[in-house]
Design brief:
heterodimer, A: mainly beta, 6-stranded mixed sheet, 4-stranded antiparallel sheet, about 55% strand, B: mainly beta
Chain lengths: ~110, ~110
C-alpha cells in the first residue's frame, strides 16, 4: 500500500528566507507525485506535479520540487518566501498504473512572518 | 468560467439529521471524488465515481452515501449513522486522460450541533 509522510506539521519562517517542506513516500510501484496548496477555508490548488522526465519541476510562483527515487522523496523548496505563501501544503502520490486515486500526506502549515 | 462549485460553504445541522452536500462541475470531467478533511489528518477519501451511475467506496465510506445520476453532479449525503460528521468536505473532479490532475472545489464546512 502507498503512503505519504510529511514530517513537519508546521514550518515557521521569516519573509525572504528560503524554505523546504519535506515529503517522503512509500510505494511498491512507480508513482506520480503532486504538491497542492490550500489557503484558509478554501479548496486545494495544484502547485506542481512530477509525471516523468526531468526530476526537477517548477511552479509559476517560484516553488520547485525534486523527485529523488533513491530516497523516495519529493521535497518542496522556495529560495525566498513571501507573506502570501502562508498556507497549508499537501504532498500526494498516485500509482502510475492506477491514477484514479490520490494518497495525501497530513499536510505542512507554512507560516511566513514579516 | 469552468470549475467546481460546492454549496453551501457553511452548513449547520442538528445531531441525528441527514444532510446533503452539493458538488457540481462544468469541466466535462468523468471522475468525481469526495474527501473529508480534519485538522492534522490530511484528506481522506469517502467515495469516488468514474462514470455516471457507478461509484466506489473510499477509505471512510461508513455513514455516507452518494449518487451519480448526471456527469456534472455528485452529491454527498451525510447520514445520522456517521459518528463524527463535523468536518470540512472537499469535492474534486478529474478528466480521463492518463495522469490527469484532480481539481478541487472550495469546500463545505459542516458543523453538527
Amino acid at each position: 500500500a502507498q503512503s505519504v509522510t510529511q514530517l513537519d506539521s508546521q514550518v515557521p519562517v521569516f519573509e525572504e528566507a528560503p524554505v523546504e517542506l519535506r515529503c517522503n513516500y512509500s510505494s511498491s510501484v512507480s508513482v506520480y507525485l503532486f504538491w497542492y496548496v490550500q489557503y484558509p477555508n478554501q479548496g486545494l490548488q495544484l502547485l506542481l506535479k512530477y509525471l516523468s522526465g526531468s526530476t526537477l519541476v517548477e511552479s509559476i510562483n517560484g516553488f520547485e520540487a525534486e523527485f529523488n527515487k533513491s530516497q523516495t522523496s519529493f521535497h518542496l523548496r522556495k529560495p525566498s518566501v513571501h507573506i502570501s505563501d502562508t498556507a497549508e501544503y499537501f504532498c500526494a502520490v498516485s500509482e502510475r498504473d492506477n491514477t484514479d486515486k490520490l494518497i495525501f500526506g497530513t499536510g505542512t502549515r507554512l507560516q511566513v512572518f514579516p | 468560467d469552468g470549475g467546481i462549485t460546492q454549496s453551501p460553504k457553511y452548513l449547520f445541522r442538528k445531531e441525528g439529521q441527514n444532510v446533503t452536500l452539493s458538488c457540481e462541475q462544468n469541466l466535462n470531467h468523468d471522475a468525481m471524488y469526495w474527501y473529508r478533511q480534519d485538522p492534522g489528518q490530511g484528506l481522506r477519501l469517502i467515495y469516488y465515481s468514474q462514470i455516471v451511475n457507478d461509484f466506489q467506496k473510499g477509505d471512510i465510506a461508513e455513514g455516507y452515501s452518494v449518487s451519480r445520476e448526471k456527469k456534472e453532479s455528485f452529491p454527498l449525503t451525510v447520514t445520522s449513522a456517521q459518528k463524527n460528521p463535523t468536518a470540512f468536505y472537499l469535492c474534486a473532479s478529474r478528466g480521463i486522460a492518463f495522469a490527469d490532475t484532480q481539481y478541487f472545489g472550495p469546500g463545505t464546512r459542516l458543523t453538527v450541533l
